[in-house]
Amino acid sequence: MSDKRENLTYPLFGEAIRELAQTIADDGYEPDIILSIARGGLFVAGGLGYALDVKNLHVMNVEFYTGVGETLDLPVMLPPVPNVVDLSRKKVLVADDVADTGKTLKLVHDFCAGHVADVRCAVIYEKPQSLVKCEYVWKRTADWINFPWSVLPPCRKSGTPVTPSKDAL
Prior knowledge:
By secondary structure, the protein is α/β, with parallel strands linked by helices. It has one domain (5-146): Rossmann fold, CATH 3.40.50.2020. The protein has helices at 10-26, 40-52, 84-87, 103-112; strands at residues 5-7, 33-38, 57-67, 70-78, 91-99, 118-126, 136-140, 144-146. Strands 4-3-2-5-6-7 form a six-stranded mixed β-sheet. A two-stranded parallel sheet has the order 1-8. β3 and β4 (70-78) form a beta hairpin. Residues 11-151 form the Phosphoribosyltransferase domain. InterPro entries: PRTase-like, PRTase_dom.
């Protein structure tokens, strides 16, 4: 992992989503469903859903990262797992925030394969080591990425509220 950081802010995220959506539209791809990989993919899927005028959004919960640079041996699908009947014969766009190792995207892509008419992947960032080479990528980087939704620690009821710095937003 590089010591260099890629800092995505909320305003830059908005620009990234519009540019990513335009790339997808310019390619002529019109997905029937956007399948987001929770959690980071929820933001991406929501933005792409509006930008591409796709209202049919689904969520797949996958656990892989357990901390910064710490993962399980393999990604694991968490319930509820989407019913493949809902995806059958559809054009599916899998959305996530980053293709880092690519293991999570591969799990979801393979889950869809054989059941859907077409499956493609869209991410904001793709790392060089990713097992999956996404069809739609906003930016390629080897750097660690600070996402605006995960750069601050979680708020806790018993803890002192965290006031985000303007750099984090």
